[in-house]
Amino acid sequence: MAFIPHTKDDVCAMLAEIGADSIEQLFDEIPRELRVEQLTGVPAAITEMEITRLMHARAAADGMPLSFLGAGAYEHHIPAAVWEITTRGEFYSAYTPYQAEASQGTLQVLYEYQTMMANLMAMDVSNASLYDGASGLAEACLMAVRAQRKSAHRILVAGTLHPLYHETIETIAGMQDIEFVDLPYCTQAGQTLPEALARFDGQAFDALVIPQPNFFGVLENVDALTDWAHSQDALAIGVVNPTAMALLKPPGRWGETGADIVCGEGQPLGVPLSSGGPYFGFLCCRQSLVRQMPGRLAGRTVDLDGREGFTLTLQAREQHIRRSKAKSNICTNQGLLVTAATIYMALLGAEGLRRVAAVSHANTVKLVATLTAIGGVHRTFSAPYFHEAALTLDRPAADVLAQLSDRGILGGLDLATWFPELDNALLVCATETKTDADIDLYASALGNILTAAAEVA
Fold this sequence. Notes:
The protein is α/β, with parallel strands linked by helices. Helices cover about 35% and strands about 15% of the residues.
């Protein structure tokens, strides 16, 4: 255990205090046959200089491909000020704000974040974040089941939900005797048709999960879906892209009375892709459901002298209250990522977020128009989209994507991975970071690949 930062004298003094002969004796309850004597899979120790060189070499091996990938993680421009401020010592090393008197800065950041997220979603309340968007949806489903007095332990899920979100809710909430029922999508439009809900009329569901935009980038008829859920005494759970909400109708205004719970992935708000994480999930709800919300809430108050102050006003986890009354086992929030998102939203403002969303949509429209002008490429679905779209090729998408990758272009996601019926389709994405030259380069490479394949055939 060479990593213990104590001298031999320190170790001997501590062992003597507790009456143990050796550190090894502290682990004598672990059977010998279960112990690993050597870490054979761990390479030999190297110096800081050597590890820095190794990490640079591995990063360089990834290259800097031109990416048109999306599917839940998006390449947006992040102003330099965002992480310059986020990585200041006061934020970078701060952790859970248990002591309000010593954590005013951290608590105010959480309060400002909650305020901006609630406004963006047109909801009453936002918590201080969750691990990621997928686990956030699982918590939203658990909230819905708890909130329904005569719970059916059944949730209807749009078939256009992100497949990884679907797997996550099955893993987390499915283990708590909740049944998830899939709602088929229209293969022509790429969205959930309101008339498809008729077959579920009168059945008991705690909630309907509505993605906006959906996994295919398509816009759902959220008003009709929300109103149907409420007509069936079910809650409406929105799973949304926060950038899109700057341009589209926010969940709090869906249908006649709005969605009940809203969640999603916060990565587009100033968090880099970073090889898949860490990211953060957001969760908002209407005031009547706040007691079912997991995690924590930061609130604003005044002290005995009338001065403004911030504190944790709701802590619904088992570390703070009796385990039997806890709403989840969430152990922390993603405070550092939330800090970055707060600074990002504050710097851009409402108008800046709208511009990011508008330019992303315009670039995707341009990308789709340019690529579908190539023979053998057409749109997969007919419904309107935000900044992702599915395209169908005249041959399997996997082969084409591999050839694009060889040319330094990440051309999209092979949809056959989760939707076998879409074996020739790929999901492409463009954000405000893409230029006309980027789109033309992609189109040129794709055209050459498809032309060459046609000549061989």
